[in-house]
Write a structure and sequence with these properties.
This protein is α/β, with parallel strands linked by helices and 388 residues long. It has a single domain, classed as TIM Barrel (Alpha-Beta Barrel), CATH 3.20.20.220. It contains 17 helices and 8 strands. Strands 1-2-3-4-5-6-7-8 form an 8-stranded parallel β-barrel, surrounded by 7 helices. Strand 7, helix 15 and strand 8 form a beta-alpha-beta unit. The chain is globular, with a radius of gyration of 20 Å. The two termini are 28 Å apart.
């Protein structure tokens, strides 16, 4: 089993020689930190000044990390993944806005995706971000315990309504709904709202699934408390477990504002926290369903081992593995080939609107040097196997 993720023939079976070369080129660029910084600045300038760069972006970084500009545009990729037993999660990756129209538009897109998902076994989940449905400042104000103005209370009512409409539709269609997590200083309000939705719609199984970022040292305790409330009040918990996406921002804010960082002191502590949490969930699968969003080989092997030790079937609907499209294909496709439930997050949206997401992907890959090097090592191995 330790050799499973070395199988590059399975990992890159869907990539043509040209696509393999593009992936190798992109990860070589991402491995160069100064180049990523310059590229990010140039790209931001080009987008803001409306230079005609969309074609270039689409042909390179966008097509590698995204499924398309709309859900129908994603379908060729969805179908190709499904042929290899890998499901898709269509992720409308337009970052949160501060006005009502884009928030209502995000709701409309999410509801449309739910209908779209219901018809396709290849897409078992829908997903949205809390700030897709409400202003960041509103979550932040509620999370800090400050009182909302009358206008803000009405605005928050509309946020709650967007959540409720979406969760009810997911429940009615029997489609699982992943809700992403964001910065710690707005997350309490989002967590409380998602728990309210779980209480309402997760009576028989986990339809509504919250995300916990396990680079935060307090999240396992939060999960234990949530499970206790769920068992007491008779609802199921759905959890997407990830390591986290806002590391530098979290630490910088904590230092600036003089409070203890919510982030684990080291990568090792984060890994331990993640592994302890998935172990806890597997021990309590009757109460908690797991979507393990991880690009970490050791954690993936651990989850496989835990499932085997606890006699949990590889295709048990309460346990999923998930990775981002364009990354960690050696984990996704080899797990799927072994019969595990695997889904790729497939971002989509207009090229310009998805750029903040793509820039964050590049920056994350640059800061996690080991991951980029691993991608390059595997791509080199497959190039050699094909003798490109």
């Amino acid at each position: 089993m330790p050799e499973l993720f070395e199988n590059t023939k399975t990992a890159f079976a869907l990539k043509s020689d040209a696509e393999l070369e593009r992936a190798y080129f992109l990860f070589k660029l991402i491995a160069n930190q100064p180049l990523v910084r310059i590229g990010t600045a140039v790209t931001n300038f080009a987008i803001k000044t409306h230079l005609p760069v969309e074609g270039l972006i689409r042909a390179t970084v966008f097509d590698h990390f995204c499924g398309g500009v709309n859900e129908k545009d994603c379908m060729p990729t969805v179908d190709k993944l499904w042929e290899k037993g890998v499901c898709s999660v269509l992720d409308y990756s337009v970052e949160g806005k501060d006005t009502e129209d884009p928030l209502d538009n995000a709701l409309e897109v999410t509801l449309k995706i739910l209908d779209f998902v219901k018809e396709r076994d290849a897409i078992p989940f829908a997903v949205f971000k809390p700030t897709g449905f409400g202003r960041f400042h509103l979550y932040e104000k509620l999370s800090s315990g400050k009182k909302l103005t009358k206008a803000e209370q009405q605005e928050w009512g509309r946020v709650v309504n967007r959540f409720d409409i979406t969760c009810k539709k997911a429940f009615d269609l029997d489609v699982c709904l992943l809700i992403d997590s964001e910065e710690s200083w707005m997350q309490d309000a989002a967590d409380e709202l998602v728990e309210e939705m779980m209480r309402k719609y997760n009576r028989k199984k986990a339809v509504v699934i919250n995300t916990i970022q396990l680079y935060r040292w307090d999240r396992l305790d939060y999960l234990k408390g949530l499970m206790e409330r769920a068992e007491r009040d008779g609802f199921k918990v759905g959890i997407k477990a990830v390591r986290g996406a806002y590391l530098e921002k979290e630490n910088e804010r904590a230092e600036e504002m003089g409070y203890k960082s919510p982030i684990c002191a080291s990568k090792k502590e984060t890994d331990e926290n993640f592994n302890k949490t998935i172990s806890f969930i597997v021990q309590h699968l009757d109460s908690i369903s797991l979507f393990a969003g991880t690009h970490n080989e050791a954690s993936s092997y651990l989850l496989m081992q835990l499932m085997e030790e606890n006699k949990i079937a590889k295709d048990d609907p309460r346990v999923w593995f998930g990775q981002l499209f364009g990354m960690s294909d050696h984990i996704s496709f080899n797990l799927a080939a072994e019969g595990y439930n695997v889904a790729k997050y497939l971002p989509f949206g207009p090229v310009r609107d998805v750029m903040p997401y793509l820039i964050r992907r590049a920056e994350e890959n640059t800061s996690v040097a080991g991951q980029t090097n691993r991608e390059l090592e595997l791509l080199k191995k497959e190039r050699k196997r094909r003798k490109i």
